[in-house]
Amino acid sequence: KTAVEKRDFLTLLDYSKEEILAIIEEAFKLEENPIQPVLQGKTLAMIFEKSSTRTRVSFETGMLQLGGHALFLSSQDLQLGRGEPVSDTAKVLSGYVDAIMIRTFGHDKIEELAKHASIPVINGLTDLFHPCQALADLKTIYRIKETFEGVKTAYLGDGNNVAHSLMIAAAKVGMDFSLGCPKGYEPDADIVAKAQKLAEETGATITITYDPIEAVKDADIIYTDVWASMGQESEQQERLVAFKDFQVNDQLVQHARADYHFLHCLPAHREEEVTASIIDGEHSAVFEQAENRLHVQKALLKKLLS
Ligand code: CP
Ligand code: NVA
Predict the structure, then answer these.
(1) Which of 37, 70, 126, 147 has a Cα at 20 to 30 A from 205?
(2) What protein family is recorded (predicted)?
(3) Any catalytic annotation for residue 181?
């Protein structure tokens, strides 16, 4: 456990196109052959400062299927929740376990944890990024389209953590990406600039627009996420008003390709960001997408830990 060996997974910005594609490829193999005891005797600590269904269950199950063990640690139960410094938590856990997965609020907190841990730290969602989700999104899109080249993914709604990671993922693998959002809910300008620079290298296009129809025009994939993320509950009412034109519904999808697929990281709010007709309809791939969290994270754990 030396600093030289350790590799974190905080954002896809730190991973090359080749590394990302290799994780996706390995995930397809793990889907075929799920039980592989390559992490025997290894433990993953999972710290949650926010709720989770998919991230918790997929990481815990994934570690078991790879022969290892996962510990669910709610921040309410950890001394971290009573004010123990992140740096001390990082150093203590580094002495017991082989990797840490954390879901938290500020991205600076995960950076602090990674800085002081001598073991890999995996981002299970921060306010800024959700890179494990983006890996699952890429695997799902690849299974559907069998390529990223010439594929257009349109994201509708809040320029949030999921949008940031999906945009970076698209730029890395060379997939066209458009984001439609209301004024005031744009993605982080610095992240957009980074994605646009990456896209120049891979031949992808990154478009940000305030027009939902322009965003979904001829899209192969339409993606949305909740309008109020965890930690934004008090803004729920004003966001319902601000985002109303960005709902994915039967009218909006008319502008996409006839064979479009619908994705959502879940959990979803039916009749808010997406109608039931779409998410429960024949174009939806959201449950395959959710299952892919398991396969891609196992591939990631294998890469970082075995
Ligand atoms: N998509 C996702 O991360 O789901 P959970 O919040 O249930 O983990
Ligand atoms: N943007 C959402 C994603 C949940 C998986 C949130 O941060 O709450």
Answers:
(1) 126
(2) Belongs to the aspartate/ornithine carbamoyltransferase superfamily. OTCase family.
(3) no
